[in-house]
Each structure stands twice: as structure tokens, then as C-alpha cells.
Design a protein that fits this description.
Layout (H helix, E strand, L loop, with lengths): L11 H9 L4 E2 L3 E3 L3 E4 L2 E7 L2 E5 L3 H4 L9 H10 L5 E3 L2
Parallel strand pairs: 5-6
Antiparallel strand pairs: 1-2, 2-3, 3-4, 4-5
């Protein structure tokens, strides 16, 4: 488990940094097992062939698609991952 930079509770940024390093971490609404990273239990990214893959669960890309409603917060979580992504793919 990666420790928070501030020595306290893990932040979402701590979880993203841990995922980028393949480490286990969790915050209140994000978690990673080192391979997959979750927002509210939804897999939003994972390590695989070719590196890190991020699923583009952003509000504007899934709006209007049945069964693809995501929160604004999940959309923000995805946005935090995109700079680390080798590939951004449609969910």
C-alpha cells in the first residue's frame, strides 16, 4: 500500500499515482489493486497489453447512451488518469 504524501488519508491523486506505479491504494471513492483503477466501483482504467488503458467515462462521451450514465465525479476521476494513459478508449 502506498502511503499518502501528507501522512493521513489517501487522496484521489495518491490513488492515481499508486496505480501509475502498479501499487495498491484507496481513497474514499477511488481504489486500485495496482492493475485496475476504480471510481465508485466502476473500472475506469487498467494495465494491459500496450500499457495503461483508460476508459473514457466522461459525461460528454456517454451522455445519451442507455446504461452509460456516469457522475460528474467519475468524469473528473477519468480526467485525472488521462495524462498517464497510453491509450484512451471508449467504454
Amino acid at each position: 500500500m502506498v502511503k499518502s504524501r501528507n501522512g493521513g488519508k489517501m487522496t484521489n491523486h495518491d490513488v492515481v499515482r499508486a496505480w501509475n506505479k502498479g501499487k495498491v491504494a484507496h481513497s474514499r471513492h477511488m481504489a486500485t489493486n495496482g492493475v485496475q483503477i476504480y471510481s465508485y466501483g466502476l473500472v475506469i482504467g487498467e494495465w494491459g497489453d500496450g500499457g495503461q488503458r483508460v476508459y473514457n467515462y466522461t459525461a460528454r462521451t456517454v451522455a445519451g447512451k442507455a446504461g452509460r450514465v456516469v457522475s460528474v465525479t467519475t468524469s473528473r476521476h477519468v480526467g485525472m488518469l488521462i495524462p498517464y494513459a497510453d491509450r484512451v478508449v471508449s467504454p
